[in-house]
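Issue 218. Parser rejects a valid record. Input:
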Amino acid sequence: MANKLKIYNTLNNVKEEFNPIDPNHVKMYVCGPTVYNYAHVGNARPVVVFDTLYRLLKHDYPNVTYARNITDIDDKIIEASLETGDEISTITEKYTRIYEEDMGALNAFLPDIRPKATEYIQEMIDLISDLIKKGHAYEVDGHVLFEVSTMADYGELSGKDVNDLIAGARVNVADYKREGADFVLWKPSTDEQPGWESPWGRGRPGWHTECSAMIHKNFGETIDIHGGGQDLIFPHHENEIAQSKCSHGGANLANYWMHNGYLTVDGEKMSKSLGNFITVHELLEEFPGKGEAVRMALLTSHYRQPADFSRDAINQAKKQLDRWYRAVEGVKATEPAEAVLEAMRDDLNTPKAIMELNQLAKDESNAGALKASAALLGLLQNDDWFAAQDVDFDIDALIQERADAKANKNWARADEIRDELAAEGITLLDGPEGTTWEKN
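Output the parser choked on:
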């Protein structure tokens, strides 16, 4: 490689050159959804970000394994079951399917491994038992908790001091905790709640426990990259590190930690009370066949920065994609342009990569490189892009008729055709290479 991938590592807060444990097999794990409802557009950002990273890694390395978990046992799922009267499995299977379909509509690959929490209960019990044995966890009345004070470098990812966390914990600490900062590894279940038999009685795992168990089972003690949203740095990822390092003799859980920034909608935090809570499912219904435009809108901001999302951004992305699709029509992909690769390898700088794609689109001799380069971002992947625009008349024929009218100096007919198309939401774009169009 002319230039190697550089990653901003949250663990050290610096951009570092990526050096995989095994250059012949890169291992990446990203925290996935809790499946009890439709995913909102903020949930889609890490999917698009890490799918884009996955594409780049697959280009640069011979073998990449990407895992993203499914949390299918959680208090929110239990609450949804009580509210709807549906079985938990009915809820989780339904929303897992919808989640994967919706993310697929954004051109996101399915990960190589999709572990479900309910399939790793024994692995979690084994991990918890090991932590108790090594003096890092304790059991009280069916609860098992990780004792934060037993880990000297707890807080290394988030920069939080363990003594400050203990001192600053709320006054009304649950009576089964030794310190307020201790976190739950296992908790008891009532007869009405789902549960599994364990050495501490019938119960279910805490949320943090599953990822550590899944990584160890599928990859071993240490992986190359662990990713997720910024909101997961503390406590979720901090607690994953604590569990795994204390169980595995101090071995790193991951060498590189990547976190995407928050997403706002039209300048405001997404909230149901504000009426700006947008699900991916809604957007796909509103923009049929245009999930790729949603993806591109999410990639126009650097993944580590806060990003504002709007429907106008989708429309702008769609117009840009229209132009690119015209530029690559009938063309086979060649090799990605070095300028695009350079931008992508610089901590996944997708805004710079998109700028480079626009430069490629200006010269028709670059069409093959444009198509190959866009594929690195998961773009220009839809062979039926224009067919999905729901146009029930022949635009190209009308454009040709208008060209003939202009050649015959029939300006009135030429203007009439432009107006007819404008009334249908079609804008004509006259240029030196002829006339193209875009749907408003």
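Fixed in the parser; the record now loads. The chain has three domains: 6-260, 263-376, 393-439.
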